[in-house]
Write a structure and sequence with these properties.
By secondary structure, this protein is mostly helical. 75% of the residues lie in helices and 2% in strands. Helix 2 packs antiparallel against helix 10, helix 7 crosses helix 8 and helix 11 packs across helix 12.
Length: 380
């Protein structure tokens, strides 16, 4: 029964985002801006899958996932900005001209091509995550210390990207994108195509993560979460497994950032702040830690609620998020999906009790006929 309900939820998700929303746009019910908004939410859901892998299934609280998200976003943003600069007949982006740069920095050169930009958007977060994870996990740092170190690293990178010396736009970041692969980013068809690409990548990422967690690799990760010392006594190298899942989570964050930038039109250091990393953790905590569907649902619902709250009372969003987090910790620690599972289990138990409590007509006729048979036998 749980498998059937799980498949039903997956089917409804695919139908809504792959058919209902696009059909609503084609019929003029849903605006293209709403489509793009949900496309950005799906990007966040991809990043949430990586956080669930490392935190929900492995028990490692990493607070620098927003930084990996921005690395993928900056790689794609650099490519889009170079193409927009070429369309304007310029050699340097505007912010470089304002800062009196005489030539394009060497590390910008590979981003002229789309394919190298995509590869680097995945490779750069993976390499940096490998370096960070190798030294951190080799030092056997875990628990709250892991959270503090990754938080400090994210803060340091945030302050670094704010400076104009990084040649990445400083506080203003990268913006003023015009086209991707020759298609106008302001066109409705392009926005719809980017939305479909994001939904497709979300589905593919979910399937791959689910297969990974169902494999031997995933079982070892869950064993590390439950009792790392016991796994260390076996033949498994805990360092290698933790490092591998840390890199995979970074790649998913880079993929999400790469898809996010063309739909948003801007990428700034503010997206990699410590607050952003904490919010990403809350997506998974509210959705349901240790459940891939919970990470997706949490990212979608929290960001949808964020849009509603900030439009009604902008200054009260942090209070709403804090209240939701406290309620989750105190009353339903398994998040929205855990609450749904409890509700579904309650309905199944009540249905089973009702079915078992009502006797069948055959049994009732049998009980009624017994006294008659007894009286007839006595009369005889």
């Amino acid at each position: 029964m749980p498998d059937k309900s799980s498949k039903l939820v997956t089917l409804l998700f695919v139908l809504f985002f792959a058919i209902v929303l696009p059909a609503g746009h084609l019929m003029g019910i849903v605006s293209i801006n709403t489509i793009s908004l949900w496309g950005r939410y799906c990007c966040f859901a991809i990043a949430a899958l990586g956080i669930d892998l490392i935190w929900g299934y492995t028990g490692i609280m990493s607070m620098c996932q927003a930084f990996f998200f921005c690395l993928g976003g900056y790689c794609m943003g650099m490519h889009l900005l170079l193409k927009a600069t070429a369309l304007q007949g310029q050699e340097l982006p505007d912010f470089m001209v304002w800062n009196n740069f005489s030539s394009l920095p060497a590390f910008w050169q590979p981003f002229h091509g789309f394919v190298p930009a995509v590869v680097l958007a995945l490779l750069v977060p993976a390499v940096i995550a490998f370096v960070i994870g190798f030294f951190v996990f080799r030092s056997r740092i875990k628990g709250v210390y892991m959270a503090i170190i990754t938080q400090a690293f994210a803060l340091g990178m945030y302050l670094l990207f704010l400076r104009n010396e990084t040649k990445l736009g400083g506080t203003n970041g990268l913006t003023n994108f015009k086209a991707v692969l020759g298609f106008d980013l302001s066109s409705s068809n392009t926005k719809l195509a980017l939305y479909f690409a994001t939904v497709a990548m979300l589905c593919i990422s979910y399937i791959l993560c689910r297969k990974m967690m169902a494999s031997k690799f995933g079982k070892v990760l869950q064993a590390i979460r439950d009792s790392e010392p016991r796994v260390g006594y076996t033949a498994y190298r805990v360092l290698n497994y933790k490092l591998a899942v840390f890199v995979v989570a970074a790649v998913l964050a880079g993929l999400a950032g790469m898809l996010y930038v063309p739909q948003t039109g801007i990428i700034t250091p503010g997206r990699m702040s410590v607050t952003s990393s904490v919010e990403m953790l809350m997506w998974v905590a509210l959705g349901g830690r240790g459940k891939l569907k919970g990470a997706i649902i949490g990212a979608l619902l929290v960001n949808c609620l964020y849009s509603l709250c900030t439009s009604l009372f902008p200054e009260g969003w942090l209070f709403v998020l804090g209240v939701l987090y406290i309620l989750t910790v105190l009353y339903f620690d398994k998040g929205f999906t855990g609450l749904f599972d409890k509700f579904a289990a309650l309905l199944r138990s009540r249905r089973k009790a009702v079915v078992e409590g009502v006797p069948s007509p055959h049994a009732e006729n049998t009980r009624v006929s017994h006294p008659a048979m007894a009286r007839s036998s006595e009369g005889n």
